[in-house]
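Exam revision sheet. Question 4 asks you to relate a sequence to its structure. Input first:
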Amino acid sequence: MTSTIERTVEAPADGGAKTTRRQNAEKGFTASKQLTDNLQKVLVDLIELHLQGKQAHWNVVGKNFRDLHLQLDEIIDAAREFSDVVAERLRALHASPDGRSDTVAATTTLPEYPNGEVDTAETVDLITQRLEATVGTMREVHDEVDDEDPTSADILHAIIDKLEQYAWMVSAENRKPNRAKK
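Answer key, structure tokens:
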């Protein structure tokens, strides 16, 4: 069954009945295999970032636990929302996103997250690495995405901006001040 949009056409001057013209909403821009594959790479890394963020959230311990625990929630929510945006963009381009657990595990670029409790300082480093890896995937596919579909590239821009901000904010927890000598 195809989705349609009906548009009412103005009544003719002779006072006759209004007519409708059916327009197929399923036609339009269709992603190539390359664009689909590139957006799929982004999707699986965002899903994996969400899952690893939850793993970190549940198992982080140590100094500044509460602040990091809450910050991880923000990152998790954002990664989940971003994965939904990318998956829905794939659908809008007539492609089928694949977020099944076996697909994510087999194709993500993110390294495996350690099991068990992890100290806050190590968690900061691990999450920063995963944020940067996710951004790295997006930057790797960006130019090809932009060449075919600038609208999808705009979505990547917004996600990159937010994930880089999270990486900066999380990593600041372990940084020492960089004091320039005068």
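Marking note for examiners. Confidence is low (pLDDT under 50) at residues 1-11, 17-24.
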